[in-house]
Every structure is written in C-alpha cells, then in structure tokens.
Design a protein that fits this description.
The complex is a heterodimer of chains A (716) and B (109). Chain A is globular, with a radius of gyration of 31 Å. In chain A, the strands form 2 sheets. A two-stranded antiparallel sheet of chain A has the order 1-2. Chain A has a two-stranded antiparallel sheet with strand order 3-4. Chain A has 28 helices and 4 strands. In chain A, 71% of the residues lie in helices and 2% in strands. The longest helix of chain A has 49 residues, at 634-682. Chain A has 716 residues and is mostly helical. With 109 residues, chain B is mainly alpha-helical. In chain B, α1 packs antiparallel against α2 and α2 (27-51) runs antiparallel to α4. Chain B is elongated and about 60 Å long. Chain B starts with a helix and ends in a 13-residue tail after the last helix. In chain B, 10% of the residues are buried. Chain A binds chain B through residues 685-690, 693-694, 697, and chain B through 18, 21-23, 30, 101-102, 104-109.
C-alpha cells in the first residue's frame, strides 16, 4: 500500500507549482519567467513517477483504500475529502501526469518568447492539479469542486491570448456551454444531498462515491435506496454534466471554438484529459448507470450520434485544429457509446489510447503552425519536405486514429465496435444495432478526414502559409487570420518540440498492443486483455465484460478505414502529386532554408513557390457541403435563435421591461414623493422670524385649548 | 388689590407685548415688546408669590420671597438679552442699513 501523503503529493505538487509561479515567479522574477516551465516539469516528473508506482501497486492488487477526512459535517451527509484509488483512478493518474508532462516540455518550445509565459505555466499547473484532484476524488462534492476548477482553467487557457476577440469569445462560450451541462450534475448532487437520511438509514453517506454505488444496488428486502425514476434522472443529470465537458451533442459547439487557445492547451485539455473527464465521470458512476437502462440507452445513442455527426463536420473544416476538434468530439462519442452499451473496459481503453495519439496529432498541428504561420490547411501543402519528423509522427498518429493495425487506435476502437456488434449489454438490440451503424460510418469518415488533413497539409505544393492568408484576408477585408503569428518559417521544429511528440508517437504505436495483447495469451508477462480486465475490476457491481477479439469486426473496420484513406487519396493527393516537379521541390526547400535565417516573411514569400488555391473537391457536394460547412447551423441555431431571440429578446426583454417600469418606477416614486413633500414643507420656511413666532404661539394656544377641552387639567 | 386684577393686568401686558413682537416690523420695537412680555411674566410671578404661596410655608418663615427673587433674575437675564439683541441689531444695520425684520431672512437661503 502506498502511503497516503504520497498519493496526495501527485495532486499537491502541481498545485504548489501553481502557487509558486503565480505568487513568486510572476511578480518577482518575470524576466526569467521560463523557469516556471522547468518548475512545472520537475513537479510533474515526480507526479508521474508516483503515478507509475501507484499503477504498479494497484495492478498487483495492493490494498488501496484510504479513510476519508471529514470536511463539513452536515448531519446525515458529511462532506468528506478523500482518495478513491481504484484501477480507473490509477490509469487516469498515469495518463494525466504523463501527457501533461510531455505537453509542458513541448510548450517550452512552442511558447518560447511569449510575454505571458509565466501566466501560461501557472494556468497549466492549475489545470493539471485540478485534473489530478478530479480523478482522485472520493466524494461527489469534492469531485464537483475539481470539476469546476478544470472548467475554470480551460476557460483561462482558451482565452490565454485574450487580446484576440475570437479567443475571448471562445473562452466565454466554452465556460457557458459546459455550465449548462453542469447544472444537470449539480441537480443530481442536490438530489443526493436532500435524500441523505434514506442513505443514512442504510449506514451510507449520500455523498461518498462508493456508498452511492452501493445505494443503487438492490437490497435484500427488495427495492434499492436509489432506484426507479429517481435513479434514471440522477444518471441523466450526471450524463448532462459529462456531455457538457466531453462535447457530446447538443453541447458540442464550444469545443471547436476552444481551438483558439494555444495548441499545447488544445492537446492537453481539449484532446487528452479534460474532455475525457466526461467519460471518466460516467465511468465513475457506472454502477448507477447499469441499474438505469433508460439512461444507458440515452448515453449509447447520444454517443453514437455524436461520433457520427462530429465526423461529418470534420470532413469540411479548413482549419487543421478544427478538424482535430471534431475528431476529438467524434472519438469521445465512441467512448460514450461504449459506456452506454455496457462496454466499460473498451471505453476506458479507448480513452487511454486516444489520449496519446490525439495529443500527438495536436502537437503536430502546433509544429505545422509554427512552420506555416497559419492553421488554415488551404494555405499549407508540401510541408512533408521541410518537416519530415513531424510528417512521420502525424501519419503515425493519423493511422492510429483511423484504426489501422497494429497501432493503438485499432485495438481500442475495435473493442468498442465489437461490443456494439455483439450487443449483449444492458440496452435493447435495436440500440446496439443503431450505434453499430453509426460507429462504422463514423470510422469511414474518420479515415477520410484524417487523410484529407494529412494530404492537404503535407502533400502537393506549398500554398503560401500565413503570409498569403494575411494578404488574402486584407484583400477581401475579411476577419482576423487563424494564427497569432503569420510568420512563415519553413523548417523542422526544434528538438524540444519533436522529442515529446516522438514519445507520444511510440505510445501511439505500442500502447494498444502492449497494454492489451489481443490474441496472444501473454506478452512480456502481460496477460491477454489485461487492460480491459484491469479497469473493469474497478466496477464492484454488475461485472461488465469485454468481448473477445473478433476477426469479422476487425476485417470490416480495417476495410472501412482503408476505403476512407483511399478516397481521401483520390480526391486530395493524386491529382496534385503529378504537378509537383522534383526541381520545384528542391527550389522550395532551398527557399525554406534561407527563410529560417531571415525572419521576414515578405522576403521569404517571394522565394517560395506559391501554388494557386484550388477549390475543395467536396464543394461539389452542393447543399450538403454548405450544411456541413456551416456545422448543421447549430451555431446559428444557438446564437440566432436561443441566444438572440429567446434570451436577448424574450427573457432579456421581459426583465428589461420589469427593470425599467417596476424597479425604476419604485425608485422614481420614492424620489418624487420625497420631492413633493419637501416642496410642501418648504412653504413654511419663509425666513420671516415673526411668522415662525406666530406659528409657535398658535401651537402653544392649540395645546392649551386641547388640554382645557379634552385633558384632565394642567396639573393633574 | 386682588390676585385677579393683577393677573388681568399681566395678561393684558403679555398680549400687548405678543402683538408687538409678532406685528411690528422694526427690530427695536420688537425687542421692546419682548421686554413688555418679560414684565408681564414678572408681575404674575410676584403676584402668585404674594397671594398663593402655601399657608404652612408662610407661617413657618414669615414671608415668602421666591417669586420676587425670580423676578430679579428675570430682570437680569432680560438686561443681558437686550444687550445681546441690540448688538445683533447694530450688526444688522451695519450690513443692510435697515432694521426691518421682514428683510432679515438671509438664513432661509
């Protein structure tokens, strides 16, 4: 058993780093702010080592139960602070601290020279600490506090470049949209709190997570502490919170906009960890969901639909990070669908592999942005020759995302599709079949958009990068360019950025197979299906099962993936490949070399051959293309209908009217009355002493007459 | 001389003084009217002292002079008051070249 302070240290070290950076380094040593990055990296290294120790301990079956510390005693329900260390927590600790460490190392290169670098690392520390605290929480209120803290750090980091109006707007949108989902989560907590006496009657604490699991289980006397409609509603409330964080339809619209944040932020928060917190939350309360079949069905269908719909949107985006954002939403949909189908192990396995390859893809997008000065893929192209490492790693990440054997994404996605294929979970067969169809279709689309991205970015000829984009934007007078700096710098990224990507690349290749050897009984001492069984052992009730490897499913998903890649090749790579002459490539690479010395992009721009803009072949899709390009008009629906019509005009109109007429009316009336009374009273204030005297005499006489007429006499 | 006749004279004096104090526009005349009212009060005090002081008290100490002492006090205070009042009237005259009460309303503004 690992000592409790060591477990707390995983969470406290990044928190300490946050305090040191924001209270000491930023105010006092801002000139050498880059040390804040080293401080955070050191803290995270220790956290990672501790996480590994804990993972090994938990995997070997060591006792990992810790007594909770009472924080606020409220009678029936004490709010406690404690550690819930089970296999899911152990895996999440490893993923969060590991990916965060790699992303921080990458950030040293990516954020180099940014004036706000101390602030950046302070926010990153806060985020990592909150995320680690979130996965460790044993109490639902404790979990909710960290849940909101990761939301806060996400807000701060999306709006990191707050002088960009679009970044500020995106941060606000992310905060508000996730908050809508959080209302559901909060309502579930409030329900538990107000029914604490029923829990207490069974000797349970309504806010302690393992007690909540137990409450949902049938009692010997029949029924359950938590059951029926109430349980379904609680599950749906929890799922609403999870859907907000994980960008599930219809609360997905914030995640693509969140790409306004710095790219390492997108890699860590909006791909690998925070958005997976929603999946983690549903997994955390999985014993409840198992008892609520209707809620399971909702989770499965929402997940399946999100996986498909987000993939269709990813087809037409021109911004490389937005393609990946939709891809992330889609993959999170896979995880949710797996949970809904009762496939607990596969969902977390996909979370695990996805964290590595999606972080890799995002970091690759950051490198591409550094080289080309843009995020718009229409201005990229041909980067393969300038940055071979990035190219190779992005292809590895892409293939893993698409699900090509033997890369990690294949194994995890395959398990999810197999679970839908077998459909033996708690939901009805038609739900499993619908989800299966959606997931397979999404797999085809995933392959297509991923390789559309690879071909547009790395193949063909260079199309001018940020400089060209800026020029075009100025000519057409359109909005701000996609990247913060438009500097074109066609060269491979520095080692500090490529090295973390290489580590993630290795993980993306091996994580799936090594962690979970699929058809060998044992590999390097790791047993068959080890990973899924390991995380499933965290579910103390109901015992979900991971389906065995299925050749038919593997064949179908591979065929679909290859078909998608082939389609992307036909549309985006073949025609343009022929146009690039070897001489032209050499010339371009020379220009790139020159360019890396002189940082003047206008100068470099003249040397680099700029290929003409070409229409996207998908534009031939006509109305469907427009529908996808405008994101199913969801933003228009939310902005135009919900926000503007209903909130601004209707709700705001009513409150505005109430404020103007009622509230202002009362205030005005008070003032008016006082003024009128004052005007009346001022009539007596003549300044004539004799008038005052006369009034005093009159008063005295009146009192005297009053006494004589009604009183009992002056003296008596 | 009875108590009633003294009180009637005092009441008449007080009424005349009150009328003068409220109706005359000249500050000096108002001050004089106030003096009349003081003396009306003095008269009642002395009269009451003479006619209605408790019998037991009168038998014990021969004669009761409380009202008379009060009257002397009032005369003293009235002298002080008139000195102060005339000072104010002088100051007022220096500033506005007028001793009219209806024009002395600066404190209103």
């Amino acid at each position: 058993m690992v000592a409790e302070p060591l477990v707390w240290a995983i969470f406290l070290l990044p928190l300490l780093s946050f305090l040191l950076i924001s209270l000491v380094i930023r105010p006092l040593f801002n000139r050498i702010a880059v040390i804040s990055g080293y401080l955070l990296i050191a803290a995270l290294s220790v956290s990672l080592v501790l996480s590994l120790v804990i993972l090994v301990n938990v995997a070997q079956g060591a006792d990992a139960s810790y007594a909770a510390h009472t924080w606020i005693d409220l009678g029936d329900a004490a709010i406690e602070v404690g550690i819930l260390l089970d296999p899911v927590t152990a895996v999440m600790l490893f993923v969060v601290s590991g990916v965060s460490l790699l992303v921080q190392i990458y950030s040293l290169g990516y954020m180099k020279g940014d004036p706000g670098i101390a602030r950046y690392f302070a926010y990153m520390s806060l985020f990592t600490a909150s995320m680690l605290g979130l996965v460790l929480s044993a109490n639902i209120v404790q979990l909710y506090a960290f849940w909101e803290l990761v939301g806060l750090s996400s807000y701060l980091l999306i709006g990191f470049w707050h002088d960009r109006p679009s970044a500020a707007a995106a941060a606000k949108k992310a905060f508000i949209v996730t908050r809508i989902g959080d209302v559901g989560f909060l309502l579930a907590i409030i329900y538990l709190f107000f029914h604490a006496s029923q829990f207490a009657a069974e000797g349970l604490n309504a806010l302690h997570i393992p007690d909540i699991w137990q409450a949902a289980q049938p009692l010997a006397t029949g029924g359950a502490v938590l059951g029926g409609t109430a349980l379904t509603l609680i599950c749906l409330g929890i799922f609403a919170g999870a859907a907000g964080k994980s960008g599930q339809f219809p609360l997905h619209s914030w995640l693509p906009d969140a790409m306004e944040g710095p790219t390492p932020v997108s890699a860590l928060i909006h791909a690998a960890t925070m958005v997976a917190a929603g999946v983690f939350l549903v997994a955390r309360f999985f014993p409840l969901f198992q008892e609520a079949r209707d809620a399971m069905m909702v989770v499965a269908l929402v997940g399946g639909f999100t996986a498909f719909a987000a993939a269709t949107l990813g087809l037409v985006m021109n911004d490389i990070k937005r393609v990946m954002a939709y891809s992330t939403i889609s993959q999170l949909g896979y995880m949710m669908a797996a949970l809904g189908l009762g496939a607990f192990g596969p969902a977390l396995f996909h979370l695990f592999t996805h964290a590595f390859f999606k972080a890799l893809l995002f970091l690759g997008a950051g490198c591409v942005n550094h080289a080309s000065g843009t995020f718009n893929m229409r201005y990229m192209g041909g980067l393969r020759t300038f940055m071979p490492w990035t190219y190779a790693l992005l292809v590895v990440g892409g293939l893993s995302l698409v699900g090509i054997a033997p890369l990690s994404g294949f194994w995890s996605k395959d398990e999810i599709i197999t679970a839908a294929w077998l459909g033996g979970g708690p939901v009805d067969p038609w739900v499993a079949q619908t989800v299966l169809a959606l997931l397979v279709a999404a797999a085809l689309l995933t392959a297509f958009y991923t390789f559309r991205m690879v071909f547009l970015t790395f193949h063909g000829e260079f199309r001018g990068g940020g400089a060209q984009e800026l020029k075009d934007a100025e000519e057409s007078g359109s909005a701000q360019p996609s990247a913060v700096s438009q500097e074109v710098h066609l060269a491979e990224s520095p080692r500090v950025m490529v090295a973390p990507m290489a580590v993630l690349g290795i993980a993306a290749v091996l994580a799936g197979y090594i962690a979970n050897p699929q058809w060998i009984k044992s590999l390097l001492g790791i047993p068959w299906h080890w990973f899924s069984y390991f995380v499933e052992s965290a579910v103390l009730y109901g015992h979900p099962e991971t389906p065995p490897f299925n050749w038919a499913v593997a064949g179908i998903s591979t065929a679909v993936a290859v078909a998608g890649i082939g389609l992307a090749y036909l549309l985006y790579a073949r025609a343009k490949e022929g146009m690039t002459s070897p001489a032209g490539m050499a010339e371009a690479s020379d220009a790139g070399g020159e360019h890396s010395e002189g940082h003047n992009h206008d100068h470099g721009h003249a040397h680099v051959d700029v290929a003409p803009q070409q229409a996207d072949p998908l534009e031939r899709g006509g109305i469907i293309y427009t529908l996808l390009y405008r994101k199913y008009f969801v933003d228009e629906l939310y902005e135009g209908l919900l926000v503007r019509r209903i909130f601004y005009r209707f709700f705001a109109g009513i409150t505005d009217w109430l404020d103007r007429s009622l509230v202002d009316g009362i205030v005005d009336l008070t003032g008016w009355l006082t003024r009128q009374f004052g005007r009346l009273a001022a009539q007596f204030q003549t300044g004539q002493v004799q008038f005052y005297g006369a009034v005093i005499v009159l008063g005295a006489v009146l009192i005297l007459v009053g006494y004589i007429a009604f009183g009992t006499g002056l003296g008596g | 001389m009875s108590l009633e006749s003294m009180l009637v004279v005092a009441a008449a004096l007080f009424a005349i003084g009150l009328y003068g104090a409220l109706a005359r526009n000249n500050v000096i005349a108002v001050l004089m009217s106030i003096e009349i009212m003081f003396n009306a009060v003095n008269l009642t005090v002395v009269a009451f002292s003479k006619y209605v002081a408790p019998l037991a008290l009168r038998q014990e100490i021969g004669s009761v002079l409380t009202g008379q002492v009060f009257a002397v006090f009032i005369i003293t205070v009235a002298a002080a008051e008139i000195a102060l009042g005339l000072g104010i009237v002088f100051a007022m005259y220096r500033n506005t070249e007028s001793v009219s009460l209806s024009e002395a309303n600066q404190l209103r503004h």
